[in-house]
Design goal:
Elements: E1 3-12, E2 15-25, E3 30-34, H1 41-48, E4 56-61, E5 66-68, H2 75-84, E6 85-88, H3 100-111, H4 116-129, H5 145-158, E7 163-167, H6 175-190, E8 194-198, H7 202-208, E9 211-216, E10 219-224, H8 226-231, H9 236-245
Parallel strand pairs: 3-8, 3-9, 6-7, 7-8
Antiparallel strand pairs: 1-2, 1-4, 4-5, 9-10
Bound molecules: adenosine-5'-diphosphate.
Membrane topology: Peripheral membrane protein
Organism: Ornithinibacillus xuwenensis
InterPro entries: AAA+_ATPase, ABC_ATPase_HisP-typ, ABC_transporter-like_ATP-bd, ABC_transporter-like_CS, MetN_ABC_transporter-like, P-loop_NTPase
Length: about 250
């Protein structure tokens, strides 16, 4: 098991956004999270890399890192949690005044203090991998949304995380640009990256995922293989959601 999450709960003030989230993730597997807007999907993802701190819950990683949020958590533990994953945001969040290449090298050189020449080679390799060999020296405003998101993916990969997190990576994109981003994510799945993907792209989720969670109202209503959850859902709420969006 790569990660086991038990009893994860998160509130914003009175608003209980995650109520009791339990999920196990295998190393090298792709977990997709689907569900209506406001069901807590993004908050779940942000808890996984400490962008939000849970109120309760136990995270147990394969390498022994264990965080019990019922107890107080040190900054060092939060940092260790953060280091495990790379996040790809809905709105790309690139540095506007840096080129594609500089966006990718920034984290590994400034934050991780890795060797500049090694990072530069890696960044170029990653930008080639996401299909941007001829766009490396352009600035975000000179790139399409799909290209910017592929820089976002390269940037997250450059930190060499164990886990990749995608927060609705295609929802800001024009329809004709969605495919190029989904293809990159599919390639990562083939390379056995461990990934959690919040998405509204049900067809994509069914192709790429090993496991699907359907969330509603801060709970996981149903979880299982894509076949089980997306093709033969048992719960009425899952059926209604899929009927609405398919
Ligand atoms: P989803 O990703 O499924 O659309 P979210 O996790 O974004 O759901 O949001 C779930 C609920 O949490 C919403 O009611 C939202 O308003 C609330 N929420 C999310 N982030 C914050 C925040 N930083 N502060 C206050 N409320 C938040």
């Amino acid at each position: 098991m790569f990660l086991s999450v038990k009893g994860l709960a998160k509130s914003f003030g009175e608003n209980e956004v995650l109520k009791d989230i339990n999920v196990d993730m295998e190393k090298g597997s792709v977990l997709s999270v689907i569900g209506p807007s406001g069901s807590g999907k993004t908050t779940f993802l942000r808890c996984l890399n400490a962008l939000e701190q849970p109120n309760k819950g136990l995270f147990a990683f394969h390498d022994g890192l264990t965080l019990d949020f019922a107890n107080s958590i040190s900054k060092k533990e939060l940092l260790e949690l953060r280091k495990k994953s790379g996040m790809v945001f809905q709105s790309y969040n690139l540095f506007p005044h840096k080129t594609a290449l500089e966006n990718v090298t920034e984290g590994p050189t400034i934050v991780q203090k890795r060797d500049k020449a090694v990072v530069l080679d890696l960044a170029k390799e990653l930008l080639i991998k996401v299909g941007l060999a001829d766009r490396m020296n352009l600035y975000p405003h000179q790139l399409s949304g799909g290209q910017q998101q592929r820089v976002g993916i390269a940037r997250a990969l450059a930190m060499e995380p164990e886990l990749m997190l995608f927060d609705e990576p295609t929802s800001a994109l024009d329809p004709e640009l969605i495919g190029e981003v989904l293809r990159v994510i599919k390639d990562l799945a083939k390379e056995n990256w461990t990934m959690v993907i919040v998405t509204h792209e049900i067809q994509f989720a069914s192709e790429v995922s090993d496991y699907v969670l359907f969330m509603d109202g801060g709970y996981i209503v149903e979880q299982g293989s894509p076949e089980e959850v997306l093709k033969h859902p048992k719960e009425m709420r899952t059926k209604q959601f899929l009927d609405r969006i398919l």
